[in-house]
Amino acid sequence: MELWKLSEKVSKVSDVIPYYFLCIVSSCLSLSTVMVIFIGDPSWGLPGIIIFSFYLVIPYLLFAVPVQVHFNKHPKKFSFIYFCLYIFFSLLAVFIFSWVLNFDISMDVLTTMNYYVLGLSAAIIFWLWDSVFLQK
Asked: How far apart are alpha carbons 16 and 34 in whole angstroms?
């Protein structure tokens, strides 16, 4: 590969990195706000939002960003197909993290309402911010 082709690819990636960062930060803050208001205790306020945001960065980085990078090869703003795939990966991420954190091998997590609320909320929020910042 010629050096100038490599530098073009690096330049394209470096132009998009701030948008990925904005999308992740906005998604984490939005979802943690939703969690504090609707799922958790609203009296936690700003400290709760900040603490939840730090915990939410890991699943978003592991599950959402790779899918997002793949989607940005063919960007579509507010795509229903992208939304459905974000829901799938979000529910998968919530299932894996609840399984790992609870050390519970049973499938009881799939019967709880919080599983679906958290999974769908994470997907909707990330999809919205992804469509705003990255999908041209």
From this structure: 27
